[in-house]
Amino acid sequence: MKILVLRAVTWPLLVMFNLVARVWTLVGSTSRYTARRLADSDTAQQARESAEARLRAIAHAYAERTPLVLRLLVVEDHYNRGMADWDLFNPVRPAYRVSCWMRLTAYYSSPLSPDETITEILAAGEQALSSIPFTHDNTHEDNRDELTHAGHTLTWDHPGSPVPAPAQPAHAYRFVCEPPAASLGGVRRRYGTVFALDLPSVDYYRVPR
């Protein structure tokens, strides 16, 4: 009998809590329209252009200081709308109304073999004021499947494991592929091994709550 009474009392409370939680999430979150409007603002655009210029400069630095030849450049631009949440039974406001971030992946070929190319990249990273973070000190000689340091990740084709082709994310705010007609298959057939450089994503614009 007590169990039945407890269930009779608990069930309406759970339904009410679920209703309140949904209303809070709807009211406390940034709407899709507002998030898009903020991401389209002039201030966001200026920050976007600045962030992209910095990432492009790093990608071009690899082409200028190493044997790598830039063949394809991909920029993914995203924004996240602030979403209200719950911490146990306490409503939590989002820290921001919208947050924008960007990532860049550059694809290269090289006239040298992969081992020779990596050796030249490590040497370039050891030059004064180099924007290339890879050096002999932070790279394990017995692991040459990829280079990873300071958020930079360089991978390249291996037998039976080619570098995957870029794919446009379903919810990207902006997706840039330069040149538009280029493909990794075409680069690979014409120039040989493909090298892919993933740079750290950049949070370039945020509107606080």
Kindly summarize this structure in a few lines.
The chain is an alpha+beta fold and 209 residues long.
What labels would you give this structure?
209 residues; alpha+beta; 5 helices; 9 strands; disordered N terminus
User: SS-based structural class?
Assistant: alpha+beta
Shape: elongated
Could you name the ranges where pLDDT drops below 50 across 5 or more consecutive residues?
2-7, 13-28
Number of helices: 5
End-to-end separation: 49 Å
> What is the count of β-strands?
9
Helix fraction by DSSP (H/I, runs of at least 4)? 25-40%
Summarize the biggest pleated sheet: 7 strands, antiparallel
Gyration radius from CA atoms, angstroms:
24 Å
Compressed to H and E, one letter per element, the order equals HHHEEEEHEEEHEE
Fraction of residues in β-strands: 25-35%
Q: What is the average per-residue confidence, as pLDDT, rounded to a whole number?
A: 85
Chain-wise SSE layout:
Elements: H1 2-28, H2 32-39, H3 42-65, E1 69-81, E2 85-87, E3 90-92, E4 96-109, H4 114-125, E5 146-149, E6 152-156, E7 174-178, H5 184-191, E8 195-198, E9 202-208
Antiparallel strand pairs: 1-4, 1-7, 2-3, 4-8, 4-9, 5-6, 6-8
